[in-house]
Amino acid sequence: MAQIIETLKNCTIATVAKSATLSNGNLTYTLSGKPGTNVHLFTKTITRAANHIFKIEPTIDFSETGFPQNYTVNITDTGSVATNNLTVRAFNVFYKLPESSSSSDTIKIAAKAELADVVSSGKITGFDLQSGVLSSLGGKRKLTIYGDPGATATLEVKETTANVNTTTTTSVVASNESGTRNITLTYANPDIYVGMTVAGTNIAGGTVVSSISGTTLQVSQNTTGAASGTLTFSGAFTATIGSDGVFEKMITFPSTTSDKSYSAILTQIANGSFTKGLAGVTSKTITRLQYPQITLTATLVNASSNNAHWSLVAPAAIDIIGQASQTGIRFPVKWTVRAAQAGEITQTTAGFSNAAFTSDAAAGSSLQIGSSASTASYIRVANASVQIENIGTFSNLACAGSNGSNKITLTTPQPLFYVGIPVSGSNIPGGTTISAIGPSNQEITLSANLTGDITTATFTSKPFAVISGEILIDQIGKVNVSTNIEVNSILTLTT
User: Fold this and answer.
1) pTM tops 0.90, yes or no
2) CATH number 3.30.870 given to 393-461
3) For residues 250 and 138, what is the distance between their CA atoms, to the nearest angstrom?
4) 118, 356, 423, 481: least buried by Cβ within 10 Å?
């Protein structure tokens, strides 16, 4: 008794016995007869499920039989893989009886049907332009249209206020026939589409692209002479849905120094082609906004009647840069303030808080910086810290420095040291100051080279404080603004 193994997916199989006796659901067969006789064993007909086709032909395998050379098969197909419409395959299996019997033959049949490709109904089902406010620096955004393969619609992307199209490209003419509709470019340009307006030498006004084939264009009217040089292609064009049901294009937006609004406009070509998410409209517009770069300047100032008490270490002014209408910016700030005379520094009750800022109004927990509420920026203080050091002179601090070098390393970090503090000691030239401080607050760069090795140094300073924290920008405004932070609102010096 021989067997048949059937591996099927999304299809059915029908069996008709001929000379063989079939059993076990048509999966085993027996046969007897005179050796050398060629007999028709059976017919197996495989049919795909509804809305499916065979993209790969069904197969039959005799390799696990005793006499595979004795098996032959005639195949009858309905449709073909080549034309993407194979729906039925019939195997007519024949066998030449051998001299000796073989009862352990295994015939394998395999078939897998897949969903048939959907024939375009010309429908456009969706439209999207990558969301969010456009960067002031410009950049690219992906535009996507969804629909049936081959469906078309008119697409235009433009800057609304100036009414300028952004879907613009240029290409250089290679050759052409003067006074005809045919133009050949130096290279194929994938950013040129049917329907775009063409402008350039000897191109009549209102000329559009009619067809594209590689580097060859046909335009809507004859050129007025020999088209030459660089042609410009812009404006609305025909977008065609690809075989995957999608049309995609990266749209390039320029930088800006003013408020801009861009519109992507999709308009149906065939009546009733917009459906699903676009049902009920003939045109769909998506708008994206773009705002310029805005600077908010925060300056630590010493403007009160006690201005003689303080010396502010530069830089006192800090520029916070963002995009108009941007939210959630966290900007770290740090200022060093020295006492201009001997005394003791203390922190005020308010310390480093909103109260230290000049503002035009309060808006909840935020301060309004700018006279107009519609264009102002809104800020507040977070994670504020005031570190005070009232020791005037740090005598004989342990450190290490080598002859001829301007670098010394403190044994203990000094986070409140600042550039400009006088440094003195053995092998340290007179008038030497700190010119830079390393990130660990231990690596000190001096304004002069050492004249010998050192193990200690003296740092002479009046009392000082470090004001730090974060300025939170709840919203950047639409105009450049500035605010002052009054040091006397944060610190008090008792002389």
Assistant:
1) no
2) no
3) 13
4) 118
